[in-house]
Amino acid sequence: MENTEEFVKRYFDKSVTDRERAIFEGAIALGAIYHQFVGTPICKSKDVIKTLEEAIKKTMQLQPYRESIEVKIHPNLIKGQKDHEYDYETLKGKHLDIKVKAKYGSARASVRMRYIPEIDFTLMYIEKLEK
Amino acid sequence: MENTEEFVKRYFDKSVTDRERAIFEGAIALGAIYHQFVGTPICKSKDVIKTLEEAIKKTMQLQPYRESIEVKIHPNLIKGQKDHEYDYETLKGKHLDIKVKAKYGSARASVRMRYIPEIDFTLMYIEKLEK
Amino acid sequence: MENTEEFVKRYFDKSVTDRERAIFEGAIALGAIYHQFVGTPICKSKDVIKTLEEAIKKTMQLQPYRESIEVKIHPNLIKGQKDHEYDYETLKGKHLDIKVKAKYGSARASVRMRYIPEIDFTLMYIEKLEK
Amino acid sequence: MENTEEFVKRYFDKSVTDRERAIFEGAIALGAIYHQFVGTPICKSKDVIKTLEEAIKKTMQLQPYRESIEVKIHPNLIKGQKDHEYDYETLKGKHLDIKVKAKYGSARASVRMRYIPEIDFTLMYIEKLEK
């Protein structure tokens, strides 16, 4: 494991700090989650939502240096009750509230993605840096 | 519900049979599943695999006229044990064995997608038609 | 080529007609296009839209038995002019009008996907069958 | 535009430097490109490859603070010549060589994604930092 990381480090600019690397890894996760899962069919059912939240969390946590991932899909913004065959929606950025904590060496970056109504945009941002 | 289907039917060619409509709906599901979920991080962990299988099944079942969906991700074709940070893979067509049963009116179409080694191709096909 | 098709045919239910196979192939294309490309960043720029339309058309035409694919992304439904950094959108089903003509043997199926405001749904349907 | 950025900045940890923000934006692009486009049908045809490269570049450049994006899809790693109906492949990480230059304030981050055979992994890394 350490050997793999030593090998990988050669590709990185020498001046990259642990804190910058933590930011890098967290940001990749946000871009990845959005573009992998947007478009998935979804409805207000708690069971469907919880299962998708779990799948996003567990699969995306496999990428390097993710310490934790919290996934919240907002059911109140989803229109479908699945009352008839065409009554469902597909996942959009505005439904998502994602927090990723990435850790590299002694540094931690907490990054987040959520919809900001004032700018009508699903914003990705660095919420908190430790160290 | 019936009203929605009556409305929707106007868009379809008048000569479409129930059997053809069932094929149509099943085929959409196969194309959708492949192109939505390929690329998702995955490893040999049974827990990760089972959670992703469940999410695929429950979300894709929301689309119209899916009677049942079976999702199998083959762990033996996945390389990662997540022994180190870069030890995982992303979902590819060859990992998938998907069966979708679509029902429309009195007709049922069972369609399937799975990797066929002889042609090195993840084939989508109509396995069984009822009526 | 014929040999590959002969091999592949063994997987299909024996009662499948050419017309049903054409429907099957067209439907896969619709499901695939939606779930592959929804989520892609997009803005009102004609150049960006045209390039994405071309890429969808040319890549999705590689799948089996697609005779032609027409891709139209509606610029009037897209909000961003890219006047500032956060002024763009991501591709949604409602932006798309896709026609796929699939041909198998002597049969042709023209299938389509487009947003239907009355049901607030991006409907996939069989527009026309020949033979 | 400046007003939007001032608004957005409130969401970020106060200690984030321009250099860290540039890394953040570049990293999002890498995660986004991989998970948006992996799975797209592809073959050795130069025309198909070039069109997809262009579409990736132009759409992903719409996200904030991307100064430039270079997209290279390696045709030699793709198996299909489209000699018969099933003779094509779908885009995988190993086909991609992507360089993103993100600029924020006076800082630039050049980040890259490409397949590294020694670790059988499509690595994302920070290639060069300016300032």
Helix content of chain A: 25-40%
Apparent shape of chain A: elongated
Q: Label the structural class of chain A.
A: alpha+beta
* Series of H and E elements of chain A: HHEHEEEEE
Main pleated-sheet profile of chain A = 4 strands, antiparallel
- Order of the strands making up the biggest sheet of chain A: 2-4-5-6
Give the C-alpha Rg of chain A: 17 Å
- What is the strand content of chain A? 25-35%
Q: Would you tell me the overall average pLDDT of chain A?
A: 95
Distance between the termini of chain A: 24 Å
Outline the low-pLDDT stretches of chain A. Answer: none
Task: Summarize the structure in short.
Four copies of one chain form a homotetramer. Chain A is of the alpha+beta class and 131 residues long.
Question: Secondary-structure map with pairings?
Answer:
The structure is a homotetramer.
Chain A: H1 2-9, H2 18-37, E1 41-42, H3 46-60, E2 66-73, E3 89-90, E4 96-104, E5 107-116, E6 121-130
Antiparallel strand pairs in A: 1-3, 2-4, 4-5, 5-6
Summarize this structure as a short list of keywords or feature phrases.
homotetramer, four-stranded antiparallel sheet, alpha+beta, 131 residues, 33% helix, 3 helices, 6 strands
Description:
Four copies of one chain form a homotetramer. Chain A has 131 residues and is α+β, with helices and mostly antiparallel strands. Chain A is built from three helices and six strands. The first copy, chain A, has helices at 2-9, 18-37, 46-60, and strands at residues 41-42, 66-73, 89-90, 96-104, 107-116, 121-130. Chain A has a four-stranded antiparallel β-sheet with strand order 2-4-5-6. Chain A has a two-stranded antiparallel ribbon with strand order 1-3. The radius of gyration of chain A is 17 Å and the shape is elongated. The relative contact order of chain A is 0.21. Chain A binds chain B through residues 1, 4-5, 8, 36, 39-43, 47-48, 51-52, 54-56, 58-60, 62-65, 80, 82-88, and chain B through 1, 4-5, 8, 36, 39-43, 47-48, 51-52, 54-56, 58-60, 62-65, 80, 82-88.
